[in-house]
Specification:
Order of helices and strands: HHEEHHEE
Strand order of the largest sheet: 1-2
Distance between the termini: 58 Å
Pfam families: AbrB-like
Radius of gyration: 22 Å
Helix content: 25-40%
Protein name: AbrB family transcriptional regulator
GO molecular function: DNA-binding transcription repressor activity; transcription cis-regulatory region binding
Shape: elongated
Largest sheet: 2 strands, antiparallel
Keywords: DNA-binding
Organism: Lusitaniella coriacea LEGE 07157
Low-confidence stretches: 1-5
Mean pLDDT: 79
Strand content: 5-15%
Amino acid sequence: MNKKKKSDPVPLTGEELSKKVKELGNLSKEEKARECGYYTVTKNGIERVNMMKFLNALIDAEGIELDSTANGQGRGGRSASFRISVQSNGNLLIGSAYTKKMGLEPGDEFEITLGRKHIHLKQVDREGDEEE
């Protein structure tokens, strides 16, 4: 009953994991975890599926933020709603959930264009030229 006596498999992560899970369609969670390499083989040759590692890797692969501490800043437990309100001081604040989702870094610059009821941001590279 020693199916896989070699070393434990290297589990898939990131985009590769997301893609594989989608390909596996109607399989159970445990079967998907096993197919993605989230199992170990005990000394007795028994396969054990590591569901917690699999689910945590899947959460990370999908970019879902579950930790409420965003580098110690802001209030935890909120998710991006894609709606913001003008603050009492007249400012519009775009939170870190949006900038992280867009892959923005401190110092990234934008050109602001105002429409009737919208604001368009066009990213500008470091030399001041607009990105295509």
